UniProtKB/TrEMBL annotation:
Signal is among the record's keywords: yes
Presence of the UniProt keyword Signal in the record: yes
Location of the MmgE/PrpD N-terminal domain: 5-116
Keywords linked to the UniProt accession: Signal
Similarity-based family: Belongs to the PrpD family.
Protein name listed in UniProt: Immune-responsive 1
UniProt organism field: Gibberella subglutinans
Amino acid sequence: MATKALATWALALQFSSPTEPIVDIAVKSVYNWAGCAIGGYGLNPAGISYEANVPFIGAQGSSSIFGTGKYVDVKTAALINGIASHADYYEDTHRGNPIHLSGPVLSALFAVAGWMAPV
């Protein structure tokens, strides 16, 4: 029930709805997550996970593994970016954001965005 209520609320949001402090925290969270994902790919957990998934990736996709120049399917991008963003576990360390959901949410969000609107 709570998930449905949260989803209904989130779908009703307009970009003009969030206040300036919320937008500021969101932007900082994206920068923080992206830096961790890019830096984390060079560490063992993300690299090993990518190599383990290579046989299952299939055709080149349109979703980016941040900082690598590699484009893969949406599920692989979400997985590897999520692992990379947690490799050093520094995402969401800024004190202005009391919740910890950038890793899973932004990893999936950017993977789906790349799939829906490839560049």
